[in-house]
Amino acid sequence: MLILQNWLITINYEPAEDIMLAKLPSVEEFGANELKHALEIVSDNVLNYVVKNLILDSTNVSVEKMEDRDYRATINDFLFKLTLTRLERFARLNSSILNLETRAISAVNEIFQKVGSTISFRVFADLESAVAWLKAPAQ
Q: Where exactly are the structural domains of the chain?
């Protein structure tokens, strides 16, 4: 079910599987403020639809030129909002740039640990693997 599709973001939700898929914009094309807005839209929809499983498709997101301070502030806000929802599992589709993935994984783990979140987080190279993990019974 298509929840939202515009120039910035596309969000689909499959209620039967309880999986939301959010495709993020290119930061280089639109800018850091638009990324922040897109992430706010995602967290609002996770909350409104009481989503338990989220796939964040960031394959088009390149934050190389984004200052670390701005990046961390944007990601921290987003992740903190996710901890206030009923989200159980969070899958991120890989941008395939290793140093950027390391930065993203570090930020997610740091925030989830800081707030004592029980959300499971994994990074995947493809959508099929992410969906398979979200559909598998929690361990």
A: 2-135
Please classify residue 63 by burial: count the beta carbons closer than 10 Å to its beta carbon, then call 0-12 exposed, 13-18 middle and 19+ buried: buried
Which pTM does this prediction carry? 0.90
Tens digit of each residue's pLDDT (9 = 90 or more) over 71-102: 778 888 999 999 999 999 999 997 665 555 67
Cα 20 from chain centre: 10
Return d(Cα 45, Cα 93) in angstroms, integer.
Answer: 19
Instruction: Find how far residue 138's CA is from the centre of its chain.
Output: 19
Fold of 2-135: Transcription Regulator spoIIAA (3.30.750)
Adjacency order of strands within the sheet including 2-5: 2-5, 10-14, 19-23, 53-57, 89-93, 120-124
